[in-house]
Amino acid sequence: MTRTPPPGPPPGAAALLTPAQRRWAAAGFSVLAAGLLLWSNWAVPALGGALPERTARSTALALALLALASAAGLGRRELGLSRDRVLRGLAWGGAAAGVVVAGYAVAVLVARALPALASALGGGADQSTSALLLGALVHVPLGTVLWEEVAFRGVLLSLALRALRPGWAIAVTSLVFSAWHAHGALAAVLGDPGAASLGEVGAAAGVLAATAAGGAAFAWLRIRSGSLLAPMGLHLATNSAGMLVAAIVRTAG
Predict the structure, then answer these.
(1) How many folded domains does the chain comprise?
(2) What is the secondary structure of 16-79 as a DSSP string?
(3) Residue 209: inside a domain, yes or no?
(4) DSSP code of 127?
(5) What pLDDT digit, counting tens, does each position of 7-62 carry?
(6) Could you tell me the end-to-end alpha-carbon distance of the chain, in angstroms, rounded to an integer?
(7) Is residue 168 part of a domain?
């Protein structure tokens, strides 16, 4: 009777590689991490562009990165794209998404939470229904979830797992994920960094810490399920459902 292999990269996969292989993986991780941070915090603000253009650009980059990773020797299983883990990924992702949606539903029902929720989530109070749905169902899935999950829980985490133990791989990729959001988070919270108050600086630090925690949850789901679909499900529920809930509570208010 054939024994089914455990999901995802084998625990301690780095220990199965030679020192030279681990060094190459660490080098690849460093180059990719630096490239992602430069892209998010410098190139994206410099390029600008309308939302459809940014979504198309992010989708193309996700596909290109997958092709590059495959050419570099990262397998489908390492990347979380193994067919035999699809159902497992859907189950874990669906369960995690359900928890998020349930949390949003509770917040909506608690009147006291509505103003804080709307402010924290943002979202299109001034958007038409069609624009809001387009954002939640197209731009977020393709421009944010697909791109970030392929980059961070797909390729970057796979490289980290070749060089580090799973716990350390989760930690370092989560820190890079937080730094990836630095420009947007700091601009949103601080406005003018030179005139920021201590409270605003603390709020910005809190946003980045929460982003790192979210990145750790996404990475844990990816390793636990063996599928990239699991963190995608949680990520999609957090962002898209958040947009819709924010619109609902603002309209109700």
Answers:
(1) 1
(2) GS-HHHHHHHHHHHHHHHHHHHHIIIIIHHHH---HHHHHHHHHHHHHHHHHHHHHTT--TTTT
(3) yes
(4) S
(5) 444 555 666 688 898 999 999 999 999 999 999 999 999 998 999 999 999 999 99
(6) 61
(7) yes
